[in-house]
Task: structure prediction
Amino acid sequence: MPEQQSAQYKAALDFAERQVKSLVERHPDYFPIYTVGGKWYHEGELWTDWTGGFLTGMMWRFYRRKHEVEWRQRAAHYSRLLQPRQHDRNVHDLGFIFLNSYLPWYELTGDPAFLQVLVQAGRTLATRFQEKGQYLCSFLGPESLFIDIMMNVPLIFYAANQTGDKELRRIAVAHCRTTRERLVRSDGSTAHEGIFDVQTGRFLRQSTQQGLRPDSCWARGLAWSMYGFSKVFGLTGMEEFRETAELNAEYWLTHLPDDKIPYWDFDADLSQPLPFGPQKDSSAAAIAASALFDLARQAKSDERSLIYHNAALVTLDALLDPEYLAISTPGWEGILKHGVYHTRKNLGVDESVMWGDFFFVEALSKALEQRV
Result:
C-alpha cells in the first residue's frame, strides 16, 4: 500500500475516533441507529433495536489501534450495557451485538465470564430455529427468513466451536444451507426475505422488507450475504460457504456503478425520484469492502486474492471522498454520509447509519493490517 494511501486511511480513522468520542460525550449510554439531518439524537421509529454492538465495536477497534486506556474503558462500559441482551429472544441480531462487543473483550482478556456471555447469546439465538423449514426466523415471525441473519449465525458457530455442542452446529449449518438454497440466486444476487409455511416448513416465496421488489437485489442484503458466508467459511472450513460468498462477490463486482458505491438496490430505477431512484448506500459499500478483505485472505488463488483485495481498496478510496466521508461537512455527527436504513419506511435515508460507520472503521483497520 502506498504511504499516501496509508496516511489517508489513518486520517480517516482519526476522524472516526473524534466523531465517536463526541457522540458518547454528548449522549452517554446511548446507542444510536441512524441520523436525522446528520444528528444522532432524535425522535423516530427504530423498527428494531439491533445496532448496539457497532458503537461498542468501534471503541474496541480504536483501543486495538492505539492502546489508549480511555477507549478500553469506554468499550468495556458499553459492552456491560449490552450484557442483558444475551437472553433477548425477540431479535435475530445477537451476532451483531455480541460478536462486536464481548468477543473482542474476551479475545483481549481471556476472561471466562465473557466467553459465557457469548455462548449464552449463541444459545439464545439458536432458539429461533424452525425445525420445519430448517432456518432461524427473523424478528418479524416464525414464517420469515432474512438474509441479514447470515451475519448473526456466526455467533452460533462460535458457541458451538467453544463448547463442542453438536446441536448448535447442526442448527447453524442447516440455517446457512437453507439461506443459500432459498435466498441466494444462481447469479449470486440475493433476496432479502423468504416466506415459509410454518405448519409444513415448505418454502413459499421470496419477499422483501427493504428491497425494491421480491425479485430485486437489495444492496445491503447482498453485502450481508457475502460477508456472512465468508465468516461462516472461516469458522467451519466448509468449502460450500466460501463458494457462496465468492458467488455473491462476483455479482457485486460486476454490477457496481462506475464510482463503485452501489445504489440502495441493484435494480433501482435511476429515472425515478429519491429515495426509490438513485439513492446511494455507503453502508453497503463499507460492509462489502470489509467482506472483500476477508475473501482476499480466504481465496484459493493469488489472482483471486488480489482481485478481492484491490476491489476492497478501491471501495475504501471511493468512500474517502468528501461526498461520502463527513470530514468536510461541518456539524455532521456521523462518519459516512449517504447511508440508508429503511427506504420503504423512510428511516435513515441519505443519512449516517451506525453499521455503515462501524464497517467503514473495520475495513480501514483491515486495510492497514493486511497491507500488500
Summary: The chain is about 50% helix and 5% strand. The CA atoms of residues 64 and 72 lie 9 Å apart. The beta strands are 129-130, 135-136, 144-146, 193-196, 203-207, 339-342, 347-351. The first strand starts at residue 129 and ends at 130.
